[in-house]
# Entry
Amino acid sequence: EVPPDIILQKNRYVFEELSTCIPAGTKLTEDELTLILNSFLNGLSRNETKFFVRRYYSLLSVADIASETGIKENHVRSRLAKIRKKLTKFIKEWK
# Structure
């Protein structure tokens, strides 16, 4: 299991994929985004953190996450969408 603060490693792919969660017009440095992501992960449930880390840090596909967790791909997509929605709200409230 990867601890939430591992996201401190600045993986550009993670930032690119999660960029849709950043509200339009919001300007963040990579350092600010790293701080936000760490704070966000610390506020998630253990299960949500596992999904987030598997997808956005380990870069596993939805199919791989479904296979690892034993749940359907649609359920994985739904969970990830809810987590991204929470992240968008978290970023809006951060500033």
Q: What stands out?
A: DSSP finds five helices and no strands in the chain. The helical segments are 12-18, 30-43, 46-56, 62-69, 73-94. The mean pLDDT is 84.
